[in-house]
Structure formats: structure tokens, C-alpha cells
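Researcher: Structure prediction, please.
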Amino acid sequence: MSDASGTVDVREQAPEVDDGAAQILDQRYRSYSGARHGLAGAMRAVVASSVRFTLGFGRPARHKFLPWLAVVIALVPAIVFVGIAIVLDIDLISENILPEYHQYYGFIEVALFFYCGIVVPEILVADRRNGMLSLYLSTPLRLWSYLASKAVAVTVTLAVITMGPLLFLLVAYTVEGSGPDGIGDWLTVLVRILGSGIVIAATITAASLAISSLTDRRAFAVIGVILLLLGSQIVTGLLVEVAEMDPRIYAFNLGEIGDALKDRIFGVGPPSPLGEDDGPPGLRISELSTLFVIAVNAAWVAAGAAVVWWRYRRIEAG
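Model: Predicted structure follows.
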């Protein structure tokens, strides 16, 4: 409304303000007053979130199916063995009816390769595809700490397969009465299970992450990991068993060389894949020195880490 002088009464034209509407009361910036955990806290957060992501926690059911299927495949033989031990009520290990602890790894190889080929590639590829990598690197994390956190996360999840069934067997056999005799022997078996699980998980983790770092397509990463794991077994097997070449070629066999180190940890010589009588003369894998086996496994880990570092330095520079 205008008065005689032609001025407008602003108060009459101003809209009424709803008392329940949101209002900006203070626009000042405030410093963060919570706890600051620094680099260590950031790495713990990445490890925890990556483990949850890989195992499907907090994700739709379709993302839980494959990782937990691999876990079930690895656990089923252990559950069957324990059931047999309870029913027959004899020491089935000493009677050579059930496999010893180090022999059980042959039953989880399929689950391990399945998990590495189908599930592990997603842990690196997803961050590059959805832009989370740049967000992570804007925190106290640096490239080396981000990659180390991812490697730890994969190793932890793989340990569910490489250690879980063996620990279940150890506890179940102990309760049933077929476990190691005495606390000293029991702790020795426990340490060997943990050490073997870490060794196998670390070697395959390095190789799987190296392949996954080379592509932004999950399907390509899955194919690459599967070809590396299975192809190394097939090719080296043909070269040694059919072409009768030097068994040290098994150094390029991820599954066989990791299994060889596992047997060294358990203090037993692995059975020769060539057989005792019909194999070609020369050095068999059971005759490889422990130092050679350790060096080869360390070389796989170092080579995998080098490929991942080289690839991510190029991504960071780009």
C-alpha cells in the first residue's frame, strides 16, 4: 500500500514467516573439536570399510553371496571331518583316516582361487571407478598408506579362508580328543596354522592386486586374476610333467610354491607332484631348498607390490 507521498509500506508486503520453517542462525565457520586419529586412524578406517565392502556387509544380498559362498566351500570339508571324528570316536589323524592339518589346504584351494578371482578385484577397481580414490587421498592418507590399507584388508579377508577352517579343525579336534597332545604341541600347531595362512594369503593377495591395478573394468580384472592363478598351474605343470623340464619352473606356479612354503612351516616335505617313481630325473619340488621356496614367495609379493605401486603412481601423476 502506498501513502500520499507514493512510498511503499514494505512491512505490509513482506510475506509472513512460518515459525516452524528452517532459519539460518549463524554462518560462522567452526573448527573441528572432535578426536583426531591422524594417519593411523585413517588407515584403520580404510581397512575396516574395505573388509566390510569385500564381505558384503551393509550391501545388498547379491554382494554377499559370492564371498560367503567361498567361505562355505572352504568350511564344508572341515565340518564333515569333525562329524566323522565324533561319530567314529577314534584318533582319525594318527590312523591316517583323516588328513593332517597341513593337508587340508588342498581342500580350500578351489575356494581360495574362486574368492581371489571373483571378489578381490572389486576392492581396488571400485575406488577408481566411483571416484573414491581421489577422496581418500584428500585425507591424511597418502598413496603408500592407501595401498597398504587395501593390501591388509584383502589379506584379512583371505585369512578367513586360509585360517578359518584350520582353526575350526584345531578347536573341534581338541574338544573331541583328537587334537595335539599337550599345550606345547597345541600352540605349535596354532602358530603353524597362522603362519601358513598369512604366507598363502600374502602371496596371492599381491598377485591379485597387481592384476586388478592394471584395469578399471572389473570383468577384465576378474579374467586376469583367474588366468594368472589357473594358468600358472596349468603351464608349469605341462612344462615339468610333460616336457620334463626343471621342476624349479614351479616357482612361477602361485598355488604350488605357496603350498611348498606351507609344508616347510609345518615341518614336512610336500609330496612331489611328479610322483616318486615315474617322474623325470632331477630336482623335484620336494627337494627345493627352503631358502629357495622362501625367496620365491617373497619375490611374488615384491613383484606384485611393485606393479601396484607403479600403476598408482601413474594414476596419481595423471
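Model: Confidence is low (pLDDT under 50) at residues 270-283.
Researcher: Thanks, that helps.
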